[in-house]
């Protein structure tokens, strides 16, 4: 019994010593942080976990900032793509006419319909795509240096395509909810879903159509994301590299590179964005049929019934939506990366 008591006493003393040491270290760390907060922040930012997480955190914050700014333009872009569905001729809506119709039928804030879904989409999609892109680029850069080479456009393209595809699969439910919320106002009042929020939309779509319905249009969404990221991230990285040797200031280099990236992102991705919007907007008819069977079927029917140029309808609006969004996202992400490096 005496031995057991001694052992228990020793364990208790050891535990007390560990607790005291831990408390002392915590107090020391707190004192150090108070005396030198900048150093404390730097130490925290350079922990292995934060170095891995920061590209994703910065990407999400940048995307959400851009979406808040660009949401009205995105609303108009979606309405333009859905106007005149299945008809080759007829009135051709313009961004101004669409904006007037939206405001006339409700109020100015209707242009922000689906903002909650847009923010959720960015929190998921942009967090993933910029985080994956940065991670892939770092890995490819290390590999290139080991071989004595510099990373080239091909590696940037692979990183952009891969990051876009992976992120699109993860973010498709939020993207679908955004399209449903933005297109709801086009339906007769008695047939509108009147979603209260993105959570309400996701919940009701899952209950009425099944969870798998949240991935409707996933194929064109993934292809569209790959095309967009190829144009945006690969060209942004390439442009910044080429501009680095010029007399332009770092801020001007970032702004110019993001403008170049916005154009190529718009050009490569608009046809896929158009089809994605059509597929995600469609709902089942009373007989259970859908207007389009899939991406290829949608491409074929639109080309036949509405003409090839319909895929680029609203290019100006799309560019005004994509380019500033790309510019704000990339500039904010670039700045966040700079202050947290």
From TrEMBL:
<dbReference type="InterPro" id="IPR002067">
    <property type="entry name" value="MCP"/>
</dbReference>
<dbReference type="GO" id="GO:0005743">
    <property type="term" value="C:mitochondrial inner membrane"/>
</dbReference>
<keyword id="KW-0813">Transport</keyword>
<dbReference type="Pfam" id="PF00153">
    <property type="entry name" value="Mito_carr"/>
</dbReference>
<keyword id="KW-0472">Membrane</keyword>
<keyword id="KW-0999">Mitochondrion inner membrane</keyword>
<dbReference type="GO" id="GO:0055085">
    <property type="term" value="P:transmembrane transport"/>
</dbReference>
<protein>
    <submittedName>
        <fullName>Mitochondrial 2-oxoglutarate/malate carrier protein-like protein</fullName>
    </submittedName>
</protein>
<feature type="transmembrane region" description="Helical">
    <location>
        <begin position="318"/>
        <end position="338"/>
    </location>
</feature>
<feature type="repeat" description="Solcar">
    <location>
        <begin position="50"/>
        <end position="139"/>
    </location>
</feature>
<keyword id="KW-1133">Transmembrane helix</keyword>
<comment type="similarity">
    <text>Belongs to the mitochondrial carrier (TC 2.A.29) family.</text>
</comment>
<dbReference type="InterPro" id="IPR018108">
    <property type="entry name" value="MCP_transmembrane"/>
</dbReference>
<feature type="repeat" description="Solcar">
    <location>
        <begin position="151"/>
        <end position="242"/>
    </location>
</feature>
<feature type="repeat" description="Solcar">
    <location>
        <begin position="249"/>
        <end position="339"/>
    </location>
</feature>
<keyword id="KW-0812">Transmembrane</keyword>
<dbReference type="InterPro" id="IPR050391">
    <property type="entry name" value="Mito_Metabolite_Transporter"/>
</dbReference>
<keyword id="KW-0677">Repeat</keyword>
<keyword id="KW-0496">Mitochondrion</keyword>
<dbReference type="InterPro" id="IPR023395">
    <property type="entry name" value="MCP_dom_sf"/>
</dbReference>
